[in-house]
Design a protein that fits this description.
seven-stranded antiparallel sheet; alpha+beta; single chain; 4 helices; globular
């Protein structure tokens, strides 16, 4: 499953970087589900997400490993975990491009493989997952733009 998107944020690249490079800060604005992030060390995290589901909420536990960190322009990671008895494995990354002093283009992509029973429904869940990711990045954009405006720098 391939997911991707681009958004332009009216905030400095530093502000965007400081948020996306701090998992707890990045997850703070996630309204589509509750995320708990446990830091294992500087590159390993355990992420638990309680996401609303169709008939019942789902709890997803993922091991996240940072694989490529180039401050302040790129962060990438690998994930591994399980959901409904099936494995979830994937890679993803975020690239930041400074367009102007207070304008940053955020480009993200993720490739994931769903195993088990869930894997047979991959094409059905891709759309809702893409929508949820877009919503999360829209929420991040709104929060960062509010912070930038409040800072008045």
């Amino acid at each position: 499953m391939h997911l991707s998107g681009v958004t332009e944020i009216a905030a400095t690249r530093r502000r965007v970087w400081d948020t996306i490079s701090n998992p707890n800060r990045a997850a703070a604005g996630n309204e589509s589900g509750q995320a708990k992030i446990e830091k294992i060390d500087d590159t390993h995290f355990k992420v638990t997400v309680s996401a609303p589901g169709g008939m019942m909420p789902m709890n997803i536990v993922l091991d996240l490993t940072l694989t490529d960190v180039k401050e302040p322009s790129r962060i990438a990671a690998e994930i591994a975990g399980s959901l409904m008895g099936g494995a979830i494995n994937g890679t993803g990354g975020i690239d930041l491009e400074e367009l102007a002093p207070k304008s940053t283009r955020l480009t993200w992509l993720a490739d994931a493989t769903l195993g088990g029973l869930l894997g047979s429904f991959e094409s059905m869940v891709q759309g809702p997952i893409q929508s949820a990711a877009e919503s999360a990045f829209a929420s991040l954009k709104e929060r960062l733009e509010e912070e930038e405006a409040a800072a008045g720098e």
